[in-house]
Design goal:
Layout (H helix, E strand, L loop, with lengths): L3 H12 L6 H8 L7 H4 L16 H10 L4
């Protein structure tokens, strides 16, 4: 089974770049969340939308580190 990043690269190969951000492409495929590689790299454009799903102290600490408490 392909991971989400591989799936996006496959789609781009078939259809070409959609001139959207990686974050938007992940959202289109339905891969948003705390496990998303873009979120984990600290590059999520919509990181504030993840605030509702932060459940553990570890989730909150990780979010604050990645996004400077934003």
């Amino acid at each position: 089974m392909m991971n989400l990043k591989q799936e996006i690269l496959k789609e781009e190969k078939i259809y070409g770049s959609l001139f959207t951000s990686d974050c938007h492409k992940v959202g289109i495929i339905g891969g948003c969340g705390l496990e998303c590689w873009i979120y984990q790299e600290g590059n999520c454009e919509y990181h504030k939308e993840q605030l509702d799903i932060l459940k553990t102290e570890s989730d909150i600490t990780n979010h604050n580190i990645l996004y400077n408490g934003d």
